[in-house]
TrEMBL record:
Domain of life: Bacteria
Entry keywords, A to Z: Acyltransferase, Transferase
InterPro entries for the chain: Acyl_CoA_acyltransferase, Bact_Acetyltransf, GNAT_dom
Species of origin: Gordonia sesuvii
Stated name of the protein: GNAT family N-acetyltransferase
Length: 167
């Protein structure tokens, strides 16, 4: 396990594509192996989560132990024509979160998410959405504790939204 004192945080960059592919793949396979890296590249509905573009406003936070990334949270402004699973509108970025299995259960996911939500507030972003699969109660519990609520009419899709205080 990583010592919390040895964890550093930095901004996500376009150079972190391999990290985003890994994070996307592991998020897709949260309940067991269903997809592989080739699927992330071949399927546009998966690949879009690894296509970070700061020019469109995308932002993110990487947690590192030494030089090794052990977690990442990212928010993408995916347009309607290339919408992600948690898309609500073009003004609301879609949030994703991943923590390496060996680093889970110690609050790192919460820390990354809180940093990402602070970054959203700092950018005057009124809301962030996400999608969590129905059986993923652990993730759903974390998101609820951070202030995410089910989007009316989209609960079966697992779509949740966080709204910045005062928005």
């Amino acid at each position: 396990m990583d010592d919390a004192a040895d964890i550093a945080f930095r901004s996500l960059t376009a150079g972190d594509i391999d990290l985003l592919v890994t994070a996307t793949l592991e998020n897709l396979n949260w309940s067991g192996p269903r997809f592989d890296r080739d699927d992330v590249w071949a399927r546009p509905e998966f690949r879009r989560y690894a296509e970070f573009d700061s020019a469109r406003g995308d932002f993110g936070v990487v947690a590192q132990h030494g030089r090794e990334p052990i977690g990442v949270g990212w928010a993408l402004f995916l347009p309607t024509e290339h919408a992600g699973y948690g898309h609500v509108d073009d003004r609301t970025p879609e949030f994703s979160l991943w923590v390496a299995s060996r680093s889970r259960g110690r609050g790192l996911g919460r820390e990354i998410a809180e940093r990402l939500l602070r970054a959203a507030r700092d950018r005057d972003i009124a809301a962030v959405s996400l999608s969590v699969e129905p059986g993923n109660t652990r993730a759903r519990g974390l998101y609820r504790s951070l202030g995410f609520v089910d989007v009316a009419g989209r609960r079966d899709d697992g779509v949740m939204m966080w709204t910045a205080p005062g928005s």
